[in-house]
Amino acid sequence: MRQEQDRKDRELKLVQEELSDQELIRLDKWKKLREKGLEVFPHKAEVSHSVFEVVRDFSPLTKEELEAKSYQVKVPGRIMTIRKMGRATFFHIADCRDRLQVYLREDLVGRENYELFDLFDIGDVLLIEGRLFRTRTGELTVLAEKFSFLAKSFHPLPEKWHGLQDVELRYRKRYLDLIMNPESSQTFRIRSQIVSGLRKFFEDRGFIEVETPMMQVIPGGALARPFKTFHNALGIDLYLRIAPELYLKRLVVGGLEKVYEINRSFRNEGVDSQHNPEFTMLEFYQAYIDYHQLMDLTEELFVYLAREIHGQEEFPYGEETISFKRPWKRLKYLEAIKQYSGLAPSRLADPAGLMEVAAGLTPDKKPTTCARALDVIFDKLVKDKIVQPTFIINPPREISPLAKADPANPEEACRFELIIAGMEIANAFSELTDPFEQRQRFEEQAAMRQTGDEESHLVDLDYVEALEYGLPPTGGEGIGIDRLTMILANKKSIREVILFPLLKPR
Predict the structure, then answer these.
(1) Residue 130: strand pairing partners
(2) Measuring CA to CA, which of 158, 208, 387, 415 is 20 to 30 A from 328?
């Protein structure tokens, strides 16, 4: 036992050497609390309300109504402010949604307990038991009759956090962001509402939720560079999925005619305000419909979500007002490029000119075909200019290897991208169901891969074999939940809507 105590003392000494003066004071208070026999980190707490529930449920009551019924509460919260006034102290406790004032009086809790409060710091978590009342200024307050310790904070909370001087620190230490900034908590509540709303919408329409592999032998379902790993027991390379598409369509082959998955996917690509290497998508597939019907269903879904979250179909996004009122604009891909790119029609009609423009836009990754050049031009010169919900339909077939060709123009795909506020929010196809054409498309993609295009699709013969058993006409769509949350929560960066975005280690 003596050796164990010596080891702990040495570890504590090392910790103390690395602490600031404020942290050393907090550590000393913790020791004194322990010496007094106070349980600093208890196993549980008997709670009647959260801070948010107290504010929500009792704020409408007048001073007289509170006094008439003597409402008692047991409410936990983190100390955010302390204002001592001799033998009385006012302080605020908070959860991640609201804050509540507490009034502590020496004559009510006893001198020993009142002096014990001197060992508490801003950031500590307490349980307050007492009666609700209103102060002379009308503020809802708990008159503390008892208080107990729930957790000690050994570090001071950030000062002037609402100035948000260090945005990156908010992402690296999200727990501090949630403690200090109720707006962040609201963002992630909206995200949770979106996910719940998606499930309800599709389950009400007869869809079933499924799960498909996150580690795949052949990554597929999108044109993207995958993450690669190795499975020791099997001795094989595996890839983190870039999309669940090919597995979901296998299920439609198997007779599950309406399926969806809320999935985590991974793409080994750049990081910016709209891209995180790990992201969340909804993908759904329905037999017997095409991409035109998917557009109708998408409008219906987004209107439903907007009403659930905002109570209406119009809401702010930055300096704009986004309207989900139906019907939404449907614009052909080439028409969108003509309208928004700023390029002369003669330049668009010249293949060499297209390649030159695209190469100038992405000098580190020059496109090898006209279709790829158009894709670059759309991404760099067109997308940002589209604010209101717009379906961009019929892009080149070459950049849509899993979509049916348009019968009216075989060089175009039966596909749409939904653009809102300059971002691609959804991507959908009339799915390619012909196994022979699908194999040919895969082989075309494989040939492009041989030229160095790491985003081209690999040949998945197992998927082709599944198609050979018969995939009925099917509409499929992927919706980016992170970007959708950005739109509905009025956030300009994807890092604002992901609790723990990927950041380069310091």
Answers:
(1) 73, 144
(2) 208
Instruction: Tell me the pLDDT of the chain (506 aa) as tens digits.
Output: 566 666 656 555 556 667 888 999 999 999 999 999 888 899 999 999 999 999 999 999 999 999 999 999 999 999 999 999 989 999 999 999 999 999 999 999 999 999 999 999 999 999 999 999 999 999 999 999 999 999 999 999 987 544 445 788 889 999 999 998 889 999 999 999 999 999 999 999 999 999 999 999 988 877 788 999 999 999 999 999 999 999 999 999 999 999 999 999 999 988 889 999 999 999 999 999 999 999 999 999 999 999 999 999 999 999 999 999 999 999 999 999 999 999 988 888 888 888 888 888 988 888 888 999 999 999 999 999 999 999 999 999 988 888 999 999 999 999 999 999 999 999 999 999 999 999 998 888 888 777 766 666 678 899 999 999 999 999 999 999 999 999 999 999 999 999 999 998 87
Strands 236-240 and 215-216: antiparallel
Asked if 87 and 114 touch (Cβ cutoff 8 Å), the reply is yes
User: How far is Cα of residue 420 from the mean position of the Cα atoms in its chain?
Assistant: 17
Nearest-10 Cα torsion for 121, 125, 131, 136: 40
Question: How many helical (H) and strand (E) elements, i.e. helices and strands, does the chain have?
Answer: 18, 20
| Nearest in space to 49 (alpha carbons), one of 146, 111, 129, 118 | 129
CATH of domain 179-328+426-496: 3.30.930.10
Contact 502, 271 (CB under 8 A): yes
Q: Which CATH superfamily is domain 2-157 in?
A: Nucleic acid-binding proteins (2.40.50.140)
What is the C-alpha to C-alpha distance for residues 334 and 324, in angstroms, rounded to an integer? 24
C-alpha span between 24 and 17 (Å, rounded): 9
Pairing of strands 88-94, 72-85: antiparallel
Tell me the Ramachandran region of residue 27: left when phi exceeds 0, alpha when psi lies from -120 to 50, beta otherwise: alpha
Count other C-beta atoms under 10 Å from residue 29's C-beta: 18
CB atoms near residue 462 (< 10 Å):
10
Report which of 475, 397, 471, 467 is spatially closest to residue 436, judged by C-alpha positions: 467
Distances (CA, A) of 195 to 28, 297, 414: 45, 17, 28
Domain 2-157 identical in fold to domain 179-328+426-496: no
- φ/ψ bin of 318: left (φ > 0), alpha (ψ from -120 to 50), beta (otherwise): left
The tokens of 281 are what?
A: 């998508």
The ranges assigned to domains in the chain are 2-157, 179-328+426-496
In 135-202, the DSSP E strands lie at: 140-151
